[in-house]
Amino acid sequence: MYKKVLSAVNEHLNSEIAARYALNLARVCGAKLYLCFIAEKGMPQQNISKAEDAIKRLFNEAVETGIQAEGITETGDAVEEINKIVRHEGISIVFASTRREDIEKRFYAGTVARNLSLKLPCSVALVRVVHTGKIHPHKILVPLKARIDHIKERAYFTARMAEGFHSRVFIFHVTRPITRFFYGEIHLTPAQWEKRLPENIKDFMDYLIRYEIAHEGRLAPGITARSITIEAAAKRHDLIIMGASERGLLSSIIKGNPVEDVLRETPCDLIILKPRHED
């Protein structure tokens, strides 16, 4: 599915760490790795040198690991230049680290990360780096909604990331509390919650079984974003992989956006996947 993996690198350490997630995905998929640096006009030479040094380190590591790699440096608007490279090279998936504006801005429409997700014709993995010194996740938390699109790709991405790091996958679904008139909230046992598992999530787990990925599933009632961050912190997960929000700006303003909430509050590294490959 992923034959060509591109990672956008800049002068910040977070982008180099995000690129290592891309490197490991390329390794397990047998894909070619593209390391891309887009220098903005007027960028200080010191920042350019930092980005170029990062690409050299990543390139050498990729070659030593047996990965076919290529470095690309261009000048201009990051989204536009990456879009050109994606279309010209036939890139399968792009990795990019989130920036401070993605975390601080309430509705991150117009940010580089959001524009990459919306404008690129390939899949996009946005990486929020929390622990700069921890790149080998042993426990991966995968929050899933009841209805999931691109199930096959989501499962494939999760499986390959788990394979690359020898990780165990923990699937987590937040449900609404069950209430009964006059009697208030009903408390169910784990086995009773399991019977209520949505079909799409069962399909996702079936794919993990085919890929021989060790995994567990858990359902819990509550508020989506808050429940995810608490679960990640309480169970000491190392990485969260979740899908990009499909909500528009107006819907996000009215109902809120769980992805943005997790992006700001995540206690561990986070990958937001925008899948493009059809099932």
Q: Quaternary status of these chains? A: single chain
Secondary structure tally, helices: 11
CA radius of gyration is 19 Å
CATH class of the largest domain: Alpha Beta
Report strand %. 15-25%
- Listing every helix as H and every strand as E from the N terminus to the C terminus, the arrangement reads EHEHEHEHHEEHEEEHHEHEHHE
Please count the beta strands (DSSP E, at least 2 residues each).
12
Briefly note the CATH topology name of the largest domain: Rossmann fold
Q: How would you describe the shape?
A: globular
Task: Summarize the main sheet.
Answer: 10 strands, mixed
The CATH architecture of the largest domain can be named as: 3-Layer(aba) Sandwich
Question: What is the helical fraction, as a range of percent?
Answer: 40-55%
Structural class: alpha/beta
Describe the secondary structure blueprint for this structure:
Blueprint: E1 4-8, H1 13-29, E2 32-39, H2 45-64, E3 69-75, H3 78-89, E4 93-97, H4 100-104, H5 112-119, E5 123-128, E6 139-143, H6 151-165, E7 168-175, E8 178-180, E9 184-186, H7 190-195, H8 199-210, E10 215-221, H9 224-234, E11 239-243, H10 249-255, H11 258-265, E12 269-274
Parallel strand pairs: 1-2, 1-4, 2-3, 4-5, 6-7, 6-11, 7-10, 11-12
Antiparallel strand pairs: 5-12, 8-9
